[in-house]
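Interim report, section 4.2 (structural modelling).
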Amino acid sequence: MPCFEDVFFDFKPAKRVWKPLVKRLVTGTWKPMTLRPGQALFPAHLKRLGLYLHVPFCRNLCPYCPYNRIEYDEALYARFETAAHQEIDLYSRMMDDALRRSGRSRPRIYSLYLGGGTPTVDPRGLERLVSHMQQAFGPADDVCVELHPAAMDDECLDILASVGLTMLSIGVESLNDRILELIGRSHDAATAEDALKRALAKGFHSVNADIMFALPTQTLDDLDSDVSAVLRMGVDQVSTYPIFGFPYTDLGRKLGITGIKRPRGTLIREMLSLIRRRSGEYGLRQCAVWSFLRPGEKKFSSISRHHYIGIGPSAASMTGRQFYVNTFDVNEYASALPSRLPVAAVMDMTPRLEMAYWLYWRAYEMEASAGDFLDLFGAALRSVFGRLLAVPKLFGLLEEHGGSYTVTPKAAYWIHRLQNEYSLNYIDRLWGRCRTEPWPDEVRL
Ligand SMILES: C[S@@+](CC[C@H](N)C(=O)[O-])C[C@H]1O[C@@H](n2cnc3c(N)ncnc32)[C@H](O)[C@@H]1O
Ligand code: SF4
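Predicted structure of the assembly:
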């Protein structure tokens, strides 16, 4: 039997009304967001900046994975690496020019996030890229990396420590061999457990374990045993993700079904409350819709940096004045460089759109700080979004303290459902186009 929220979110006639309305209330416009070919400008006005590096290679392609990744090939990796160094050099020159013209000083790099794909698919290559980025932009306060359990031997962890790695996240996904095989992972439970133990023993600042749930055939007990095991091992953070069936992944085909259906809302809710309960028993507190963190630790997250520049195929950048995305195709990426940045599509941001972008990700992180908003936009959060936020506040989904807002635990699941509607509209549509067209003309969202 479908539950209330499945019916509500899937009822198309109602959706046609409330979705544009919510979008209008948040972004302040009925107009579609449009990305076009264009040029990236270096954001000399920023005092703080995050950096992202996308390494789009994996040794084994998981069939459910929606990220931009291709099978590792030595020659293609070499092409990618050369181009990524050229992209770093181009940005470095742009930064120097922009700072000279504006008379400002370098932005502080508060984090360097290495994502993929499998960033450590070639650890020495990654070391060269990270060193180059730190040299070109200045050292980062935190260096964060996504790790695959089968691509993080001791030598690799030593290399990461030597380039200043502070935070890491391991794609454990499950500690059940039957399920790991069913979803097409290339490692078994013992490899994931060993990887986690070795990472924890190295003394990095923080270790996060990714666990996927609502997996085919998975029961509540299966999930309980996965979550309890990583918590028992002493991780600083656990991030759990209900498997999502992005239209362009092929798990459905592999399993012989026409597309993965979203797991029932009631199951997701039960699983989320189990994860919350177990995390609480080990002293971890909810820090995002699906993540639980040891108090006092910094959050491992790819979305907590508001302004960032992305290097690598498919990397996105958000500078406040622009949001843009690099071409997804590794060969096209390499061909564009070194003469120009490999930017495929650019959206000019209005101040209101930038505020909406900020609010969208703060909702996911379950808190929106009035101080951060004032610092970024020079305005009071309540004066811009107070009327919009009054409605969820009335239903006990939000709490307000001194102009800052926190999402209550019972609202976490609703934020997920709501964001799911928009990510399917925006992220899927943009990613879907960019996957098939290296240089799309207009993309309307
Ligand atoms: C880029 S991957 C992590 C690093 C590494 N490539 C790996 O797979 O171990 C980021 C995380 O996204 C999550 N993820 C990937 N595909 C997903 C899907 N279809 N549904 C839900 N979560 C997914 C997994 O938990 C995965 O660890
Ligand atoms: S889940 Fe990780 S290892 Fe698997 S294909 Fe995606 S990025 Fe690669």
